[in-house]
Amino acid sequence: MKRIALALAMTLASPTFAQEAMTEAERTSFRAEVRAYLMENPEVLMEAIGVLEQREQAAKANSDVTLAQTYAGQLHDDPNSFVGGNLEGDITIVEFMDYKCGYCKKAYPEVAQLLTTDGNIKYIVKEFPILGDQSMLAAQFAIATKIVAGDDAYETVHNTLMEFRGDITQDSLSRLAASLELDLASISVEMNGAQVAKIINDNRLLGQAMQISGTPTFVVEDQMLRGYVPFDQMVRIVDAIRSEG
Q1: H/E element holding 142?
Q2: For residue 26, with 0-12 CB atoms within 10 Å meaning exposed, 13-18 middle and 19 or more buried, which class applies?
């Protein structure tokens, strides 16, 4: 067994060398022995797969750290993105979100809870409409509201759309604008204007550069969290970043 394990290790380390060092008969015999060994000891294969997965996860985490550091300026210093929470906070969370994303809506109250209970987190929103026409319409409306009416109005619209469960249409947005006493005519003009289009496109290009393909995606300092993260886990991540700093 030791001989087979050693040979298997050598093959995994340098399969080309191992193949060249054997005759055809030896290769056939070796393959049979390896197969028999693995069938008798499947835990060896599972252990190897576990090690491989750990290495892949570590490599992915290192890649994400590099991406977060490389694009920190675009993430943190974009004047077109809404900034909430504690503007002087010691931790910055950037969220790429979509108003039609179910997991974004699930994360929404937990992000709000984190901002409230922690009190020292700066929160930046990146409109990232990737789920169809309704997503795009909602993002255009929210961004146009920020341009026309400012950050407070944007925050109200953002929160309302995150809690909204129906179809996002021109009619539903018109009713929302009326309920909030917003200037719908000016917002409608901006929705289809060059500035809104550029903001959405810039976010899309940034997302592509950072290999973001789904929402929500959170960038917490130099860590990327791809997908929904429960409140308790987010707290632990924030605490860990603070302790490392």
Answers
A1: helix 133-149
A2: exposed
**What one-letter code names the amino acid at 127?**
E
Rounded Cα–Cα distance for residues 185 and 242 (Å): 45
Q: Pull the structure tokens for residue 144.
A: 């146009």
Higher pLDDT, residue 54 or 156: 156
pLDDT, the chain, mean? 88
- Is the predicted pLDDT of residue 49 greater than 70, yes or no? no
R_g of the chain, CA atoms, integer Å: 25
Q: Classify residue 77 by its DSSP letter.
A: -
**Through-space distance between the first and last CA atoms of the chain, rounded to whole angstroms:** 48
Residue with tokens 């929302």: 176
For residue 209, give both structure tokens: 């550069």
Predicted TM-score (pTM) of this structure: 0.76
Catalogue all structural domains in the chain, each as residue range(s) with its CATH number: 2-70 (no CATH), 80-244 (3.40.30.10)
Q: Which two tokens stand for residue 126?
A: 């990146």
For residues 99 and 168, what is the distance between their CA atoms, to the nearest angstrom? 9
Q: Which residue from 243, 148, 133, 101 is spatially nearest to 125, judged by alpha carbons?
A: 101
Nearest to residue 44, comparing CAs of 106, 81, 95, 1?
Answer: 1
